[in-house]
Every structure is written in structure tokens, then in C-alpha cells.
Amino acid sequence: MIRRSALVALVATALVATPQAQAAEPSPGTWLVAQFSEGDRLLRFPADPSSGDPGLTADGVYALAAAGVGRTTAAKASAWLAAPEQLETFVGDGEAESYVGGLTKLALVAQTLGENPASYGGVDLLGRLTGLQDDTGRYRDRTDPQYEQTNAFTQALAIIVLHRAGRDVSAAVKFQASTACADGGFPIAFAQPTCKSDVDGTAMVLQALLAAGEKTASGPALEWLVKQQQADGGFQAMEPPTNANTTGLAVGALLAGGRTAAADKAVAFLRTLQVGCTGPAEQRGAIAFDTKGFDAGTVVRATTQGMLGLARVSLADVSAASATPGVPAIDCTATPPTTTTTVPVPAPGGAAETPVDPPLAVTGPDQAVPLTLAGSFAVLAGAVLLFVSRRRKAGA
After folding, report:
1. Which of 64, 78, 234, 294 has the highest CB neighbour count under 10 A?
2. Which fold has domain 28-311?
3. pLDDT tens by residue, 273-303
4. b/e map 336-367, b = 16+ CB within 10 Å
């Protein structure tokens, strides 16, 4: 029978042997939130507070939602985007000018945050977008022809936001599928003399086609995309290097197409680009564009698109529904244990058997206490049950 002193010793061992909190890798969401000028916009030029960039700010909203953090900042960003001075510039006045890119990006912002894209800043984004579709199924800007900016990205986003809204996208999907190149991939620009598949374009188009259930063109496109993955797990655009932006987009397409292994490799590559606790404090959490490291000119956009990949989220599914209002604190002060943690388990005769594997590593300061207590109470409960059981047997 286990003596009370042995039980106390066992419980004490359990309480001491639980792992110490380890320093979590800095959250890219925490770094990104700090880049919002005045708390509501990302800048085209970091040194110029007047250079608020609506497109990049929208990307920031998707990124925070995908990471499940920063909902307060995302909501402020949406309010800034919906203000008249940004809204009309980005989407046009709805009469002489309307821009597919702006309409689709803001519609996705609204959908991501659970807002109404049919009444965003007083504008029916989806209604205007629907009115820009031509007889072929393509969405075109209403503007001077020389300023036409629509391409595979804008077409794909149109399919995504309209499909999310439950609208008919069959004509748009049919047009998009018809633009595939002979090798199965998709180009960025339409109607070029030579069709040249592009990784960014193909990743975006795949997210749209797969979301809409297209099964003919998406299969070859997925095969083509997988073949473009580089040895380091990343993806590159028209030319090297492999980078966070392209890889982040590719992850969403790979997962939508069920290519989990390729997506895992891509996510692992993205993690190598993130600035960790060994980097300068003001850079921790950021995702660099490529392996050259932190570059102020490219890092904000790289982080927004890289975060989608790290979160393993497609633009067709991104949502802030479960996002927390704030972001986790960056704590690089804790140090991981230097020795393997073990918890003795009582053998039938009362002696300790071979130690079991330690609990999973703690992933952040908010989890340190719950996981430590959970581990302690689990061992404590097991010891108490064993003690009670043996007392009953002894008294039988």
C-alpha cells in the first residue's frame, strides 16, 4: 500500500516537474497592428503619414482576421476605408468611374468583419460590381480604356466575394476558366499574345475556382502550381527569389485543393522568414519578403500576405468571427528548459517506472499557467485514484 508520505512526494514531484513557460515566437499580428498609422491605416510609404494605402490596409484586415487577432484594429481600418475620401477614390464615383479592384477588396473587408457589403459607407459594393460584368463574364473597370486595371486577380476576387454573398458566378467562372494557358496555369493579364502562367495569378484563380466548385480547369492548375514549389518550400513569382507574398497566396490554393504536404512545406518556409526573439525588438514578428531579411520597403505587404499562409487560410474563407480584440504581447524574456522534464509514474509495487514524455511545449505566456496546472492536476488526480483504489483493496 502506498504510504501518505509517498503520495505527498509524488504530488510534489508532479507540481515541480511541469514545464516552465517558454518564450513564444513573436506574433506577426502584434507587429502588424503596430504598423497601422493612427491605428487605422497602413501606409504606402512608411515615413509619410499622409500616404494611407486603401489596398494595403484591406490586406491588413484579412491578415489580422486570418491570424485571429486584432479585431479592434481591423474594425477601425474598415471605418477608415468606408470614409468618403477613401471610398470614392478607391471604388470610383459609381457613374463615370467604377473600379473592380477596389469594389472587390472592400466587399471582402466587409464580409471578413461581418459587415454588409451591399451598404458599405453608403455604397452597394456588390451591386456596382455586378454592373461591371460584360457579356463574356469578365468584370471590367468603368473608366478610360487606357486606365483599365482588371486582370486575373480582380476577376478571382469578384468570384470570391459574389460567391460568398450567394450570387450567381457561373458566367464569371466560365470566363476565368477559359483563360488557362496550355500548361494548366493561369496568367495575370488577359488576352496577351503569348499565354504565360504565373504563380500569383494561378494561386488567386485557384482559390476562386475551387470555392465556386469548378472541377475542370482547377485540376490542371493545381498540378501546375504544385510543380512550381521550390526546394526550400517557397514559391516565386515570375522570377526568383522565393518570397512571402507569393508563398502566402499559394498556401490557400494548395489547402483548398487538398495538397496538404505541399502546403506544410510552404508554411515551414514562411516561418523561416519571420523575425524572432533574436531580432531587433522593433522587428520581432514581422515576416520578411525573402531570405535577405527585414526590408522596411517590402515587409508590411510581405507580412500581410505571409500571415494568410501561416494561418493556412484562403481568401475565400477568411473571417474575423472568432478574432480577439487585441494581440498577444511579445515576450522574449522566458527561456526554455535546458533539461528534459519527466514525471514519475507509480509502478504496481509503489516504485517509479520509466519516466513518460513531457507535456507539449507551452506556446505562449497566456497558456503557461493553464497548461502547468492542468498537467499538475492530471498527475495529482491519477495519484489520488491509485491511492484510494489500493486502500480499498487492502481493506477488502
Report:
1. 64
2. Glycosyltransferase (1.50.10)
3. 999 999 999 999 999 999 999 999 999 999 9
4. eeeeebebbebeeeeeeeeeeeebeebebbee
